[in-house]
Write a structure and sequence with these properties.
Blueprint lengths: L3 H4 L29 H6 L11 H10 L5 H4 L2 H6 L5 H4 L7 H8 L11 H4 L10 H6 L28 E5 L2 E5 L27 H12 L6 E5 L8 H12 L6 E6 L1 H4 L6 H8 L4 E6 L8 H12 L4 E7 L7 H13 L3 E7 L13 H11 L10 E6 L4 E5 L4 E5 L2 E5 L5 E4 L7
Parallel strand pairs: 2-3, 3-4, 4-5, 5-6, 6-7, 7-8
Antiparallel strand pairs: 1-2, 8-9, 10-11, 11-12
Length: 428
């Protein structure tokens, strides 16, 4: 197998070089038109129809009236034509003064990048729109608050080889790429993703990480993350999964991704057929708001679920975005309808410049109270804090145990009513 080319794709997915705008294209980040021959080369093979929602259809017809639907639905085109600067973004959004200032003042911070598809879901006029706030820089990220750090979870200190974090006894976090198709402004790994000046993870790094896993028999579970591993090519993913599956003590492989939400076109039949060959394989999807669960995302998740891949969700609790019972219930129930089991709600990590996103912990507990008993148990995730300093995930629970009396254990249900269970403390 020719592996060298596979490992160059973690930073820039295959075929995007030919589609990238040249300096002659000026400030237009979307130079591709049906009249150019490169369109034919990209669409050289017939592909199954991909459902397109009303928001994306209206956006494409308004901004790209001559762009074929097949090209819009090509994930390579979506990645190659990400919006990455204020001049490009202002074609589609009315930028507020604060947004424009934040974009121009990033100075080496987390880059701006949004796929055209995800941009179609964002309000063009309202800076307070939930999805817009998750991907467009704001002045809040320019200031460091108390207790914040670039690496608050101390991942770098638990990294025996580049790209691998070994915090828990039986599992490792394998950071295989620093590339995402869309950068979330509250990203825990904003110190390391999207920066071209950082050393790219390549074949030797992957080999070193795989060698560490192979000689560490306590590791039975490998979580592949990044960046976003589903922005790798099918060939690179297949190579990686094959190598991990060849290690006898690796029982489970998981993939963490936001691709179904921001780049659902990537979940092609070919990708799903390849992934299906590596069971037991689990996928954790990052979901932030019910507005992400459109027909494109539904189809991507359906393809994965139909392939027998168990799906779970992870959601970061974000102020003004999903920090209400109503919104969080809608998200959890929507995920469950799409065969995704809600897994974690995370208290927002104290990364540098995240204070405007963080809520009081009590708010998360209130949301959990508002879910438990008021919706299906399968739709109620765990609320956790990933402890700063490398303490790992610690679950936070509403206080349902009220104590003991002479009739037994006193419990409070979801309605606030008290009940007793015949459990007695020794000596009581």
């Amino acid at each position: 197998m020719e592996t060298e080319s596979l490992f160059n794709e973690d930073w820039e997915p295959p075929s995007t070089t030919a589609m990238r705008p040249s300096p002659a294209d000026g400030m237009n980040p979307f130079p591709i038109t049906p009249s150019k021959s490169k369109v034919i080369s990209i669409s050289r093979r017939p592909r199954p129809a991909f459902r397109v929602g009303e928001a994306a259809l209206e956006f494409r017809l308004r901004h790209f009236p001559d762009l074929p639907e097949a090209l819009w639905n090509d994930w390579h085109w979506q990645v190659a034509n990400r919006v990455t600067d204020s001049a490009a973004l202002s074609r589609f959004l009315s930028l507020s003064e604060g947004e424009a200032r934040a974009i121009s003042s990033r100075e080496g911070g987390l880059p701006l990048a949004v796929t055209p598809y995800y941009l179609s879901l964002v309000s063009p006029h309202d800076p307070a729109d939930p999805l817009r706030r998750t991907v467009i820089p704001s002045p809040g990220e320019l200031a460091a608050g108390p207790g914040e750090a670039d690496d608050p979870l101390h991942e770098d200190g638990k990294s025996p080889v580049p790209g691998l974090v070994h915090r828990y006894p039986d599992r490792v976090l394998f950071l295989v790429t620093g590339f995402c198709s869309t950068y979330c402004r509250y990203c825990t790994r904003s110190r390391m993703v999207g920066h071209a000046q950082r050393k790219r993870l390549g074949r030797r790094d992957w080999e070193a990480a795989i060698d560490y896993i192979a000689r560490t028999p306590s590791v039975r579970d490998v979580l592949i993350s990044g960046g976003d591993p589903l922005t790798l090519s099918d060939g690179a993913l297949s190579w990686l999964l094959t190598r991990l599956r060849a290690i006898p003590h690796v029982e489970v492989v998981r993939i963490g991704t936001k691709v179904p939400m921001v780049l659902p076109q990537r979940v092609t039949p070919a990708l799903v057929r390849m992934l299906k060959g590596f069971h037991p394989l689990w996928i954790s999807v990052h979901a932030a708001h019910p507005s992400e669960l459109g027909p494109e995302t539904a189809q991507a998740l359906s393809r994965l679920a139909d392939a027998g891949i168990p799906l779970g969700s992870q959601t970061v609790l974000l102020s003004g975005i999903n920090d209400s019972v109503e919104v969080m219930k809608g998200l959890m129930q929507g995920l469950m309808r799409l065969r995704v089991r809600p897994y974690y709600i995370y208290q927002c990590d104290p990364i540098t410049g995240s204070a405007h996103f963080r809520t009081p912990v009590e708010r998360g507990l209130e949301i959990l109270r508002g879910l438990r008993g008021h919706t299906s148990g399968y739709a109620v995730p765990s609320f956790v804090v990933d402890a700063p300093g490398g303490g790992g995930k610690i679950p936070l629970l509403p206080d349902s145990v009220r104590g003991w009396d002479n009739e037994g254990l006193v419990l409070e249900n979801y309605e606030g009513r008290l009940f007793r269970y015949p459990d007695f403390r020794a000596g009581a």
